[in-house]
Structures are given as structure tokens and as C-alpha cells.
Specification:
The complex is a heterodimer. Chain A is of the alpha/beta class. Chain A is built from 28 helices and 9 strands. At the A-B interface, helix 3, helix 10, helix 15 and strand 9 of A face helix 1 and strand 5 of B.
Chain lengths: ~650, ~100
């Protein structure tokens, strides 16, 4: 049995999906978290459940809504669970009236019943069930109530069959019946309505006699047919709601009160700046200063212990070096930053679940529009501060093609969590007392880079601005269970990457730094294979480093593999160059990175933050842009921009150094 | 500059007066009279979201920069840009400014 989960955006589909299937799909409090269909199996059954992106109607508006419509029409699930947000039931039932026209059985999961009373809504479920002719289960996906009843109803198939109630006026229903005679196959009623509405999807099935019928109806209704159909759907819903729902005025809600502060004319922008500042300040500055030395010390002890232990059992020198200077140094350098990342992930998860993100999109829309972007571009940006790949994919909720393409190219400019180790490493060494401040400033620099880039890109991407139509979700307390799981998942995935990609890359770097072209082991690092390759390109970074450094050059290139690999590579190179490998001694005197000054350090960080993203993100960009050419142009632009900015930072930094 | 230089302040519509949804001010309530047909895709979406003839709308929140605007209709809240709200004709039915909302 195949079951589809369909409903409006932000109605809790994915929360229910996770509950029913025991999976861990990402949830959040903004419209459009789910952008692809997700599949799972309902616990204790062999029923396949498909979570579809949120839709408001079966006339799709954005790319991810089209996915849902196509699925429902073409894949013919055995059952549709229509999740209805009880706190906005009138609008939610609009989609229900369309689902009822499909040749599919539909049951309603009436969600958020835990908060509807607080909003002054009371739904008489039995009456609603009778009026709609559909089986209804009242649930709360968040509080996990009503879930067993829902599963039992599905298992026993005790739900009502879809009998396509006639909800429109007599003349419209007559026209639908007439058109239906010409329609073959499934979903006759749905397709007939769409034909009458002149839906472009069914253009090639139109025949002249339909047009005659449409014109007659339009004359009778005094409006065009699309509006008449929408009107009648809502009239039908309002009629039902009068019988089955009572609403009382609850006055000012908590959400309204909070919005008076967060959307206040004067406070909104400062609050936003403070919140974003705190995210980076707390993660890098406050937490980092506590944990980095601690974790670093642990890794230094581990590498000493391993070195001695291996030496005792007569392990050959190169193997000790591979394990200690390659693997432990490379992987350890990255794992150092896990405590900071946990805090970053925690703060992002809170931002995503409270509903504040939609507010930022709401109040920045006006600014963003001037830049040729949509307020909704902000969602990819914030998601991108965790990882650019889902950030780039989150652009699917943006309606306009122009805004979408610009957002895809701009999202990688936001420092993702893998770039945090680079920021934190340099900031804590060169600006030990202000590492939080420096990291937060780099975040705001990213915003400036985005603004400048958007202004430049406006000349290349033509097209009209698309409208901005979005719901403002209610504020919610972050749900501990989900926040915890989100943080855990992201942290584990970072650690997993350290144990896979970074580990393999570390071994490769160790090999290339330990051997010469003649495969001679133990040569001075400056004679190694990697050094000779790096020396070919080190001139590229000369203008921002003031030094021909093959080590910095090859490390920057490795950012393509994964951004944290930059740190890992530097740790290995510095370790092999010196006598002992100590993570914090990357910049130690006499070492390959001793030349770094405050301004060249900042310039190097800036280059790494804003140049081409990692290969995974490049892949996502190509997929979402649906153009290799545009992807390559975007990458070239990012590299060029980052290089210029790096050089600028270096020289401005030097100038300040001279003056102060 | 980033913002409109000369934004003319629209005259506050009184109860019974007609205008565009974009003319409506904070807490004013109006009934929708018609939707223009300049942009069929937008119109379709607005209809789907419940902005149909006869529906009652109220301006609930205005973004700090004056745009977009959050309106309440059919028991939920929807954000729209003023430019798109110009496509909707309305008639004012209640002017909440005459008595304070909090006192209710």
C-alpha cells in the first residue's frame, strides 16, 4: 500500500512523517522546509509513506509544488493523508476540496489540535466529518497525540471512500458533468474542473465546445471562470465551517505581542544584527576560548602517546609518521572545532524552529527586492550557515527564476559550518582577545559581499520580480527533542566527514609532503611533491600573503574537497616541517606558516570564505541552476571576487598596521 | 538610494470608501470587491490563498520598512507586497483606529 502525505506548507507534514516512519527528516518552522518527496515505511506495517512538499492548491506555483501535484496525479497512491492545520482550517480545506476531486481516497489528519483552543478555535470533529464525507482523525504531531488512532484507521481500512461530493452550484456541476464525458482515464472530475478553468497543463485537451460552455458560465457568474470556481470552493468551505467550527475572539495573541518587538519599526533591524552577531560570537569566541585548548591538549597527548606506543613495538618510522603526523594531526585539527560547531548548530536549530526566520524574510524583503532578490532568499542564506548544500537546495521555495538563480549563486558566500574551523583557527591565534568579534564581523562581511554581488548580478539576470506571497507562522518554543536531534545529526555528520573524506585527504597530503618525486621518504618538506606543485601556483597568493607560500597555496586548493580540509592540510604540513606536531603550533616560529601576520591571516581567511565552495556545493549549484555554464561562471566569479577581496584586506590591513 | 525618495502619503480611507488593498492602513478592515487580471499567475495564487470577492481582510502588521504587509483573512495571516496588493480592489468596512484594539 502506498500512502501520500499532502497538505499546506508548514502544516506539520514532516513531523507526522517522522512519527509514523520513525525517520529523522528535517523539520522547521517556516513554509517550505520539505523540497523533495521523502519516502519511508510506517512503523509496524509494510505501507510506504511519501512526504510531499507543501502545497496550497493543485495549481502549483513553485518548482517544489509541481513535484507534489505530479506525484498525486501520476503515481496514484492508494491513500492520501491530507494534513490540515486546524488553526487555519478555512484555507487548509481549500486544498481538501481539490483532493476530493481526485480518484484517490482521502483521510484528514487534523493537526495542531493542541494549540487550536488557545487560538480560540473549536472544531466539532464528528460534524466536520459528516459534512465533508471524509474520515478525520484529530492529532497533534508535536505532542504525539492521536497517532495510534490514525495508524489503526489506515490499517483497518475503516475510512470512508471518496465519493466526490458535488460542491459547486448546479450550472457549474452540469458543465463539469458534460466535460467529464470527454475525459478518459483517472481523475475525471479533477481534470474536468481544470479544463473548465483553462489550466495550461491540459491545454492540448481543450476542444471548442468547452469554450462555449465556459463562456456561458462566465456570463452567468459575471466573473471569469477561475475566480468563480475559487469563490465556490470557499463558499462551500465557509458553509461547512459555520456548522462544524466555533471561533471566539482571543484578542492579542503571544505571536502578536512578540511581533510588536521583533517587527518593531526601530528595533527589528538592531535585534536581527544582535542575534546574528551572538550566534557567531558565542560559537567562536565564548565557547571556543574554553574548549579549543582543552581539546587541542587532548590531541597533543594522544599523538605523543601513540608515537611512543608505536615506537615501543618497533613500528617503522614512516608508519608512525603516517599515523601521527598524517592521520591524527589532520583529523584532529578538524575535530578540534566540534564543540564550537555544536553551539553553532544549536543556535541555528533554534532560529529555524522558533518562526523568527520567516520574520527576517518578511522585514528584509524590501531591502532584498532592491537588490533583485526576494525576502525568501534569506532562508537559503540562514540554512546555508549550517551547510551550503541544503542552503542551495532551499532556493526551490523562491517563485521567480531570476531571484532563484541569484540566490543559488549567492548562498555559498555565507560562511558554512565547515568554514568555521578556518575562521576560528586564524582568529584565535592572531586575535586571541577578539576571536568572537572577528568571526561575527566576517559574517557581516559576507552580507556585504552578497549585497555587492547582487548589485553586479542584477545586470546579468534580466526578468521581472516575482510576487512575494508567504505565510507568517506563529512563534513556537523550540522543541527540545527536535533541536537535540538536529544538532546531533549535524555534529555526527561533521565527525563522520572527518573520519572519511578528511582522513583520506590527510593520508594523501601526508604522502605528498613526505615523499619527493623520486619516491624518497623523509625529504625536507620543501623538497616534497606537494611543495613543487604548490610552488607552481604560489604567486597567485603572493598579493595577499606577501610571501610565496606553497603550503598556504595547496591548503587553499584543498578547500574544494571540503572547507575544513584547509585547516587539516595546514596542520599536517606544519607538523611534518617541525619536530613535533602540535595543533596550536601551526603558526610556530621557523615553521612554514610563521610568515602570517594579522593582515595576511585575515586576507587568507577572507579568500577561503568567499572563493569557490566545496565540490558538494558546486554539484548542488549545477543541479539547481540546471546549467553547467552558469555554474562555471558563478564559480569563476566567486574565485575572482574572493581573490580581489583578499588582496584588498591585506593592503588595507597593512595600511592600518603602519598607521597605528 | 535604496528606498523610494518621495513616497506620497496616501489619504486614510474612511468607512464605506473604496480603493486598493494597498491603500489600507494598520488595523483597518475591508471587504474585497475585485481582483485585477494584470498577472494571471499572481491572481491564481491570490485566489488559492483565499482572496476572493466578498472576503474580509484586515491589515495586521506592517514590515519595519513599510513593505511587505501582513494581512489577516479567513482566520490566518498572509504577507503580501504593496505592489501586488494594488491588484485588489476593496471597500473599507471598519476603521479600528477609532477605538483601541487592546481595550477589547
Amino acid at each position: 500500500m502506498k500512502i501520500a502525505l499532502a497538505g499546506n506548507q508548514n502544516s506539520g507534514k514532516t513531523t507526522l512523517f517522522n512519527l509514523l516512519t520513525g525517520s529523522n527528516q528535517k523539520i522547521g518552522n517556516w513554509p517550505g522546509v520539505t523540497i523533495e518527496q521523502k519516502r519511508g515505511t510506517i512503523i509496524g506495517t509494510d505501507f510506504e509513506l511519501i512526504d510531499l512538499p507543501g502545497i496550497y492548491s493543485l495549481s502549483p506555483y513553485t518548482a517544489e509544488e509541481e513535484i507534489s501535484r505530479r506525484f498525486l496525479l501520476a503515481e496514484k497512491p492508494d491513500l492520501v493523508i491530507n494534513i490540515v492545520d486546524s488553526t487555519s482550517i478555512e484555507r487548509s480545506l481549500y486544498l481538501t476540496t481539490q483532493l476530493m476531486e481526485l480518484d484517490l481516497d482521502v483521510i484528514i489528519a487534523l493537526n495542531m489540535t493542541d494549540i487550536m483552543e488557545k487560538k480560540g478555535v473549536h472544531i466539532h470533529v464528528d460534524k466536520l466529518e459528516k459534512e465533508l464525507g471524509l474520515s478525520i482523525v484529530a492529532i497533534s504531531a508535536l505532542k504525539q497525540t492521536g497517532i495510534n488512532e490514525l495508524i489503526t484507521l489506515i490499517k483497518t481500512k475503516g475510512y470512508k471512500k471518496n465519493y466526490h461530493p458535488l460542491i459547486f452550484s448546479a450550472d457549474l456541476e452540469n458543465a463539469i458533468a458534460k466535460v467529464a464525458q470527454y475525459v478518459k482515464g483517472n481523475h475525471k472530475r479533477f481534470i474536468s474542473v481544470k479544463l473548465l478553468e483553462r489550466d495550461p497543463l491540459f491545454d492540448n485537451h481543450q476542444i471548442p465546445s468547452f469554450e462555449v460552455a465556459i463562456n456561458q458560465l462566465e456570463k452567468a457568474f459575471g466573473t471569469d471562470i477561475e475566480e468563480a470556481v475559487a469563490n465556490q470552493r470557499y463558499e462551500y468551505i465557509v458553509g461547512i465551517i459555520k456548522k462544524a467550527v466555533t471561533v471566539r475572539d482571543v484578542g492579542i495573541t503571544t505571536t502578536d505581542k512578540l511581533d510588536r518587538i521583533f517587527l518593531n519599526k526601530w528595533l527589528a533591524l538592531p535585534i536581527f544584527v544582535v542575534i546574528m552577531f551572538l550566534v557567531y560570537y558565542l560559537a567562536v569566541g565564548v565557547v571556543g576560548s574554553f574548549t579549543v585548548d582543552l581539546v587541542d591538549g587532548a590531541f597533543a597527548a594522544l599523538s605523543d602517546w601513540t608515537r611512543n606506543a608505536l615506537a615501543k613495538i618497533d613500528t617503522s618510522e614512516w608508519l608512525i609518521s603516517l599515523i601521527v603526523d598524517g592521520i591524527i594531526a589532520g583529523v584532529g585539527a578538524v575535530l578540534n572545532f566540534v564543540p564550537q560547531l555544536i553551539i553553532l548548530f544549536l543556535l541555528i536549530a533554534v532560529l529555524e524552529t522558533t518562526g523568527y526566520m520567516s520574520r527576517i524574510a518578511f522585514f528584509l524583503d524590501r531591502l532584498f527586492r532592491r537588490l533583485g532578490l526576494s525576502g525568501k532568499s534569506l532562508i537559503p542564506f540562514i540554512v546555508g550557515s549550517g551547510c551550503s548544500v541544503p542552503g542551495v537546495m532551499a532556493t526551490r521555495t523562491i517563485e521567480g527564476d531570476k531571484e532563484r538563480r541569484m540566490s543559488i549563486i549567492l548562498t555559498p558566500f555565507i560562511p558554512c559550518s565547515a568554514k568555521l574551523p578556518i575562521m576560528a583557527l586564524f582568529a584565535s591565534y592572531f586575535f586571541p582577545d577578539h576571536s568572537g568579534l572577528v568571526s561575527a564581523s566576517l559574517y557581516f562581511m559576507a552580507i556585504i559581499v552578497i549585497v555587492i554581488s547582487a548589485i553586479i548580478m542584477k545586470f546579468f539576470f534580466k526578468g521581472n520580480l516575482s510576487p512575494y506571497i508567504s505565510e507568517l507562522p506563529n512563534y513556537k518554543w523550540p522543541h527540545f527533542r527536535y533541536v537535540f536531534r538536529d544538532v546531533k545529526d549535524r555534529s555526527l555528520s561533521f565527525i563522520k566527514r572527518a573520519g572519511t573524506i578528511i582522513l583520506v585527504s590527510s593520508v594523501a597530503v601526508w604522502f605528498l609532503v613526505s615523499f619527493s618525486w623520486g619516491f624518497e621518504y623523509g625529504v625536507p618538506v620543501d623538497d616534497s611533491i606537494l611543495a613543487s606543485v604548490g610552488n607552481l601556483f604560489s604567486w597567485v597568493f603572493y598579493p595577499m600573503l606577501g610571501e610565496l607560500s606553497w603550503g598556504a597555496t595547496v591548503s587553499a586548493f584543498q578547500g574544494l574537497v571540503a572547507k575544513e580540509q584547509v585547516v587539516s592540510s595546514m596542520a599536517i604540513i606544519a607538523g611534518l616541517a617541525g619536530d613535533v606536531s602540535e595543533g596550536s603550533m601551526i603558526f610556530g616560529a621557523g615553521g612554514p606558516f610563521a610568515f602570517f601576520t594579522a593582515s595576511s591571516a585575515l586576507a587568507f581567511v577572507v579568500f577561503n570564505l568567499f572563493s569557490a565552495p566545496c565540490i558538494a556545493t558546486i554539484g548542488a549549484m549545477k543541479q539547481e541552476l540546471r546549467s553547467t555554464k552558469q555554474m562555471l561562471l558563478a564559480i569563476s566569479y566567486q574565485i575572482a571576487f574572493a581573490w580581489l577581496l583578499g588582496v584588498l584586506v591585506y593592503w588595507v590591513g597593512n595600511l592600518i598596521g603602519v598607521l597605528v | 538610494m535604496l528606498f523610494n525618495k518621495s513616497k506620497k502619503i496616501a489619504k486614510r480611507l474612511k468607512v464605506g470608501e473604496e480603493g486598493h488593498l494597498s491603500d489600507l492602513q494598520l488595523n483597518q478592515k475591508a471587504v474585497v470587491l475585485a481582483l485585477h487580471n494584470d498577472n494571471p499567475a499572481l491572481r491564481r495564487r491570490l485566489l488559492d490563498m483565499g482572496i476572493t470577492k466578498g472576503v474580509v481582510v484586515q491589515i495586521k502588521k506592517i514590515a519595519p520598512l513599510g513593505d511587505p504587509v501582513d494581512i489577516e483573512l479567513r482566520g490566518y495571516e498572509l504577507c503580501l507586497r504593496r505592489a501586488d496588493m494594488r491588484q485588489i480592489d476593496i471597500k473599507v468596512i471598519e476603521d479600528e483606529n477609532s477605538f483601541s484594539r487592546q481595550s477589547k
